[in-house]
Predict the 3D structure of the following.
Amino acid sequence: MTKGKDSGTWNECKMQLETHGGKAENITEVCMDMSPAFIKGAKDNFPKASITFDKFHVIQAANEAVDEVRRTERKSCAELKDTRYMWLKNPENLTAAQQETMAKLKDCDLDTAKAYRMRLILQEIYRYPAAIAPMVLKDWIGWGLRCQLAPMVDVAKMLQNHYDGVVRWFSSKLTNGLLEGVNSLFQAAKRKARGYRSEKNIIAMVYVLAGKLNFALK
Protein backbone atom coordinates (compact mmCIF):
# COMPACT_ATOMS: atom_id res chain seq x y z
CA MET A 1 0.00 0.00 0.00
CA THR A 2 1.21 3.49 -0.82
CA LYS A 3 -0.25 6.97 -0.90
CA GLY A 4 -1.43 8.63 -4.08
CA LYS A 5 -3.58 7.71 -7.09
CA ASP A 6 -1.26 8.51 -9.97
CA SER A 7 0.85 6.25 -12.18
CA GLY A 8 3.73 6.53 -9.72
CA THR A 9 1.92 4.29 -7.25
CA TRP A 10 2.58 1.39 -9.64
CA ASN A 11 6.30 2.01 -9.36
CA GLU A 12 5.98 1.83 -5.58
CA CYS A 13 4.10 -1.45 -6.00
CA LYS A 14 6.86 -2.82 -8.22
CA MET A 15 9.54 -1.77 -5.72
CA GLN A 16 7.68 -3.45 -2.85
CA LEU A 17 7.32 -6.63 -4.89
CA GLU A 18 11.00 -6.76 -5.81
CA THR A 19 12.11 -5.88 -2.28
CA HIS A 20 10.37 -9.05 -1.10
CA GLY A 21 11.87 -11.28 -3.79
CA GLY A 22 9.24 -10.97 -6.50
CA LYS A 23 9.82 -10.11 -10.14
CA ALA A 24 7.76 -7.66 -12.19
CA GLU A 25 8.03 -9.87 -15.29
CA ASN A 26 6.23 -12.66 -13.41
CA ILE A 27 3.05 -10.57 -13.17
CA THR A 28 0.88 -11.74 -16.07
CA GLU A 29 -2.55 -10.33 -15.15
CA VAL A 30 -3.79 -7.11 -13.55
CA CYS A 31 -7.34 -5.90 -12.91
CA MET A 32 -8.38 -2.27 -12.49
CA ASP A 33 -10.81 0.45 -13.42
CA MET A 34 -10.21 2.63 -16.49
CA SER A 35 -8.15 5.35 -14.83
CA PRO A 36 -5.68 6.64 -17.48
CA ALA A 37 -3.02 7.05 -14.77
CA PHE A 38 -3.43 3.45 -13.60
CA ILE A 39 -3.34 2.13 -17.17
CA LYS A 40 -0.10 3.99 -17.83
CA GLY A 41 1.42 2.84 -14.55
CA ALA A 42 0.54 -0.78 -15.19
CA LYS A 43 1.97 -0.76 -18.71
CA ASP A 44 5.16 1.00 -17.63
CA ASN A 45 5.91 -1.21 -14.64
CA PHE A 46 4.36 -4.55 -15.56
CA PRO A 47 4.70 -4.66 -19.36
CA LYS A 48 4.05 -8.42 -19.58
CA ALA A 49 0.74 -8.19 -17.74
CA SER A 50 -2.59 -8.33 -19.58
CA ILE A 51 -5.11 -5.77 -18.31
CA THR A 52 -8.66 -6.70 -17.33
CA PHE A 53 -11.05 -3.83 -16.74
CA ASP A 54 -13.24 -4.64 -13.77
CA LYS A 55 -16.77 -5.54 -14.94
CA PHE A 56 -18.33 -3.88 -11.91
CA HIS A 57 -16.88 -0.53 -12.98
CA VAL A 58 -18.35 -1.08 -16.45
CA ILE A 59 -21.84 -1.68 -15.03
CA GLN A 60 -21.38 1.21 -12.60
CA ALA A 61 -20.67 3.52 -15.55
CA ALA A 62 -23.83 2.26 -17.27
CA ASN A 63 -25.86 2.81 -14.08
CA GLU A 64 -24.57 6.36 -13.80
CA ALA A 65 -25.50 6.95 -17.44
CA VAL A 66 -29.06 5.69 -16.84
CA ASP A 67 -29.38 8.06 -13.89
CA GLU A 68 -28.09 10.96 -15.96
CA VAL A 69 -30.69 10.22 -18.64
CA ARG A 70 -33.37 10.08 -15.92
CA ARG A 71 -32.31 13.42 -14.41
CA THR A 72 -32.51 15.12 -17.80
CA GLU A 73 -35.88 13.58 -18.68
CA ARG A 74 -37.31 14.25 -15.22
CA LYS A 75 -37.46 17.97 -16.13
CA SER A 76 -40.17 17.24 -18.69
CA CYS A 77 -41.73 14.08 -17.26
CA ALA A 78 -43.49 14.30 -13.90
CA GLU A 79 -43.97 10.52 -13.82
CA LEU A 80 -40.26 10.08 -13.15
CA LYS A 81 -40.42 11.84 -9.79
CA ASP A 82 -39.03 9.71 -6.94
CA THR A 83 -38.02 6.84 -9.26
CA ARG A 84 -34.23 7.19 -9.07
CA TYR A 85 -33.48 4.02 -7.11
CA MET A 86 -35.91 1.94 -9.16
CA TRP A 87 -33.77 2.36 -12.27
CA LEU A 88 -30.62 1.34 -10.39
CA LYS A 89 -32.04 -2.09 -9.49
CA ASN A 90 -32.29 -5.29 -11.47
CA PRO A 91 -35.92 -6.31 -12.24
CA GLU A 92 -35.83 -9.23 -9.81
CA ASN A 93 -34.89 -6.86 -6.96
CA LEU A 94 -37.75 -4.40 -7.44
CA THR A 95 -40.29 -4.07 -4.67
CA ALA A 96 -43.96 -4.70 -5.47
CA ALA A 97 -44.58 -0.95 -5.58
CA GLN A 98 -41.62 -0.41 -7.91
CA GLN A 99 -42.80 -3.20 -10.21
CA GLU A 100 -46.19 -1.51 -10.41
CA THR A 101 -44.58 1.84 -11.21
CA MET A 102 -42.36 0.24 -13.85
CA ALA A 103 -45.39 -1.38 -15.49
CA LYS A 104 -47.21 1.96 -15.62
CA LEU A 105 -44.22 3.64 -17.27
CA LYS A 106 -43.74 0.85 -19.84
CA ASP A 107 -45.99 2.51 -22.44
CA CYS A 108 -44.61 6.04 -21.97
CA ASP A 109 -41.76 5.59 -24.47
CA LEU A 110 -39.26 7.06 -22.02
CA ASP A 111 -35.59 7.64 -22.80
CA THR A 112 -34.92 6.46 -19.25
CA ALA A 113 -36.59 3.13 -19.93
CA LYS A 114 -34.53 2.72 -23.11
CA ALA A 115 -31.30 3.47 -21.23
CA TYR A 116 -32.36 1.02 -18.51
CA ARG A 117 -32.91 -1.76 -21.07
CA MET A 118 -29.50 -1.03 -22.54
CA ARG A 119 -27.89 -1.36 -19.13
CA LEU A 120 -29.64 -4.68 -18.47
CA ILE A 121 -28.52 -6.08 -21.83
CA LEU A 122 -24.94 -4.93 -21.23
CA GLN A 123 -25.02 -6.65 -17.86
CA GLU A 124 -26.42 -9.81 -19.45
CA ILE A 125 -23.49 -9.97 -21.90
CA TYR A 126 -21.25 -10.90 -18.99
CA ARG A 127 -23.19 -14.19 -18.76
CA TYR A 128 -22.49 -15.12 -22.37
CA PRO A 129 -19.91 -17.79 -23.30
CA ALA A 130 -16.44 -16.40 -23.95
CA ALA A 131 -16.64 -17.58 -27.57
CA ILE A 132 -19.45 -15.17 -28.51
CA ALA A 133 -19.48 -12.47 -25.81
CA PRO A 134 -16.90 -10.18 -27.52
CA MET A 135 -18.97 -10.15 -30.73
CA VAL A 136 -22.17 -9.41 -28.80
CA LEU A 137 -20.38 -6.59 -26.97
CA LYS A 138 -19.37 -5.09 -30.33
CA ASP A 139 -23.04 -5.13 -31.35
CA TRP A 140 -23.96 -3.39 -28.09
CA ILE A 141 -21.29 -0.73 -28.68
CA GLY A 142 -22.72 -0.07 -32.14
CA TRP A 143 -26.20 0.23 -30.62
CA GLY A 144 -24.90 2.57 -27.96
CA LEU A 145 -23.18 4.83 -30.50
CA ARG A 146 -26.44 5.13 -32.47
CA CYS A 147 -28.88 5.45 -29.56
CA GLN A 148 -28.89 9.30 -29.41
CA LEU A 149 -28.81 9.25 -25.61
CA ALA A 150 -25.64 11.20 -24.83
CA PRO A 151 -24.76 9.43 -21.55
CA MET A 152 -25.18 5.99 -23.13
CA VAL A 153 -23.20 7.12 -26.18
CA ASP A 154 -20.39 8.02 -23.77
CA VAL A 155 -20.52 4.52 -22.25
CA ALA A 156 -20.33 3.00 -25.73
CA LYS A 157 -17.30 5.16 -26.56
CA MET A 158 -15.65 4.14 -23.28
CA LEU A 159 -16.14 0.47 -24.12
CA GLN A 160 -14.93 0.99 -27.66
CA ASN A 161 -11.77 2.75 -26.47
CA HIS A 162 -11.03 0.08 -23.85
CA TYR A 163 -12.42 -2.90 -25.73
CA ASP A 164 -9.46 -5.28 -25.32
CA GLY A 165 -9.34 -4.85 -21.55
CA VAL A 166 -13.12 -5.18 -21.21
CA VAL A 167 -13.34 -8.46 -23.15
CA ARG A 168 -10.24 -9.74 -21.37
CA TRP A 169 -12.60 -10.50 -18.47
CA PHE A 170 -14.14 -13.38 -20.41
CA SER A 171 -10.85 -15.26 -20.22
CA SER A 172 -9.29 -13.94 -17.01
CA LYS A 173 -12.52 -13.70 -14.91
CA LEU A 174 -10.68 -11.18 -12.71
CA THR A 175 -12.58 -8.58 -10.70
CA ASN A 176 -11.77 -6.14 -7.91
CA GLY A 177 -14.63 -7.47 -5.77
CA LEU A 178 -12.41 -8.84 -2.98
CA LEU A 179 -10.41 -5.62 -2.75
CA GLU A 180 -13.58 -3.52 -2.73
CA GLY A 181 -14.82 -5.58 0.21
CA VAL A 182 -11.55 -5.17 2.10
CA ASN A 183 -11.56 -1.46 1.29
CA SER A 184 -14.90 -1.11 3.07
CA LEU A 185 -13.12 -2.21 6.28
CA PHE A 186 -10.51 0.50 5.78
CA GLN A 187 -13.15 3.17 5.19
CA ALA A 188 -15.00 2.10 8.35
CA ALA A 189 -11.75 2.35 10.35
CA LYS A 190 -11.09 5.80 8.91
CA ARG A 191 -14.55 7.03 9.89
CA LYS A 192 -14.27 5.52 13.37
CA ALA A 193 -10.93 7.27 13.98
CA ARG A 194 -12.25 10.53 12.46
CA GLY A 195 -9.09 10.73 10.39
CA TYR A 196 -5.42 9.90 10.92
CA ARG A 197 -2.53 12.21 11.64
CA SER A 198 -0.41 10.89 8.75
CA GLU A 199 -0.45 8.50 5.80
CA LYS A 200 2.00 6.31 7.72
CA ASN A 201 -0.52 5.81 10.51
CA ILE A 202 -3.41 4.82 8.25
CA ILE A 203 -1.18 2.48 6.24
CA ALA A 204 -0.18 0.78 9.49
CA MET A 205 -3.86 0.42 10.41
CA VAL A 206 -4.62 -1.09 7.01
CA TYR A 207 -1.94 -3.74 7.53
CA VAL A 208 -3.31 -4.50 11.00
CA LEU A 209 -6.84 -4.92 9.64
CA ALA A 210 -5.94 -6.95 6.56
CA GLY A 211 -2.86 -8.82 7.79
CA LYS A 212 -4.76 -11.54 9.66
CA LEU A 213 -2.46 -11.14 12.62
CA ASN A 214 -3.14 -13.19 15.73
CA PHE A 215 -3.06 -11.03 18.85
CA ALA A 216 -4.33 -13.73 21.21
CA LEU A 217 -2.35 -14.06 24.42
CA LYS A 218 -0.94 -17.51 25.11
